[in-house]
Design brief:
24% helix; nine-stranded mixed beta sheet; globular; 264 residues; alpha/beta
Amino acid sequence: MTARRTALFTRGVSNAKTRKGLKLADVDTLILHLAPANAAGLGTVCASATPECIKLCLNTAGRGGIMAKGQTTNAILEARKRRTRAYFADPAAFVDRLSAEIDRATRRGRPFVVRVNGTSDLPKVALELASRHPDVTFYDYTKHARPWERQRANYTLVFSRTESNEAACFEALAHGVNVAVVFDTKRGEALPATYYGVPVVDGDITDLRYLDPRGVVVGLRAKGRARTVRSGFVVRVADLPPNVCPPARASCRRMNLMDAGRAA
């Protein structure tokens, strides 16, 4: 008898944030975690990652960051590397395995959604799966530019702010794509109500980004190493100016950012 291969997707109940979807909407999440950037040594799975993004990646937050004394890795990180090696060895076969797992989840009959890029940013993989499974809801965060060109009826994208892409963030909002911003707000404290005039919703309540209204900033509290490192990747709430457009941002000038995301 052939041994069944280990699943590539992780069930939402195993992840602290996706687990919230079960409470909020009784929806499970299949999430794929690879070794981010070039952590597996085979090439990057996050082509638009910035230096600060790589440095502060949530790959080592939560259980991924629990190491035995003297160790620099653990079973979770090694499993992500194995998945990444499987992807690079045969991308087409890897996508077929993911598709088969989605088929199995469909047959189980329990409502679920899919997040392909938990610790990666591979748009071709996500788009292929969304195309194969038009009745399944997909969502992701991305740092690749022009995300509105990759959204589909069943695939929602949230553009992620970094230390160097603020103009692209307002461009995304103007095209109906929400933007995720990491703030230095502490756990249990309220996020700012707006970011340069754009309403902020609390992205820590749930990971189900397809439920968010359009034209908003998805506020996230700094986690992992980002909580203690001074970085342009994390917005300091105390430094936020009044609700006006950032200076010298052509994509922002002459438009009311409260209506960003609802523009044609």
